[in-house]
Amino acid sequence: MAAPLDFFDPHFHIWDVSDSTQSGHDAKVLFKPNGKELYLRRDYEAEFEKMPAELCLKGGAFLEALSVCHVGQSGPEYSASCLEEAAFAAEQLNDDSYVLVPSCALQQPDVEEMLRNMSVLSPRVRGIRQILNHEPNWPRNGVLGNLLENPAWIRGFQALAGAGLSFDMQLNPRQHAKAVEVVAANPEVTVIINHLGCPLLEDLQDGGEVYWAGMEAFAKLPNTYIKLSMLCYPDPNWDENELVLSALHRVIELFGPHRCMFASNFPVDVKDGWPAERLLPAFLKLAERYSEGERQELFAGSARRAYRCQV
Prior knowledge:
The chain is an alpha/beta fold. It is about 40% helix and about 15% strand.
């Protein structure tokens, strides 16, 4: 039997939604995974006890959840919560198996100070994520608006280059065109597109030119990667939907396996019916048509390269 493939999971969360939260998270927005207020490293790693023998978990990238929390809050109070989340993640994931992608509000005047603070907090901070989905809005963006049209946010995004940080970009298909302009103008910032670019099923059907135009434009930019994740967003049973499966292969063809990465999105996808024993076999089946080297890229190589992780 061949040795198992490394799985470096480039997108998972941990949090504390108790009344005395140590992570700065917001119980009014986030849920209790498996009914528990604390979802820690041990809980995340336990999700993989039933993973297929063909794969071996080899760490991954913690992704923030603060950019959906504390709707309406801004300024120093919100920045303090972002630092609290980053410190919590750094303490929990305190070895080189994991890298960290915390959040900060790039449109705020304290952005450069925050980016410095994040890098000082842990050398394993590799990037920043701030959820951008607008119309339909993810929680904070009903107040913040379309950040891609905000000059202050653009300046904050530009500051990532000087800080040596990447950006995890989660957005809706109708925002892709503007985002491509921003990313193209900042080629020194590595951008990792989250969750396949957040298409709904209608975005993949006939008439989905907006989504595919965005994917083709992103793929032409050498500083972009894309996560094959949260696939239950377009269809709860995506592994049985030929439209979703063909879209995944088309995205892999556009970007190349060396810029695509499978990701768990735990604990969110677990809540939505996709535990490791269902999700990872579906990824393996999807990857069957690719060479061994390409599978290595999809399960670990691309993510390690994007996040500058050698483990």
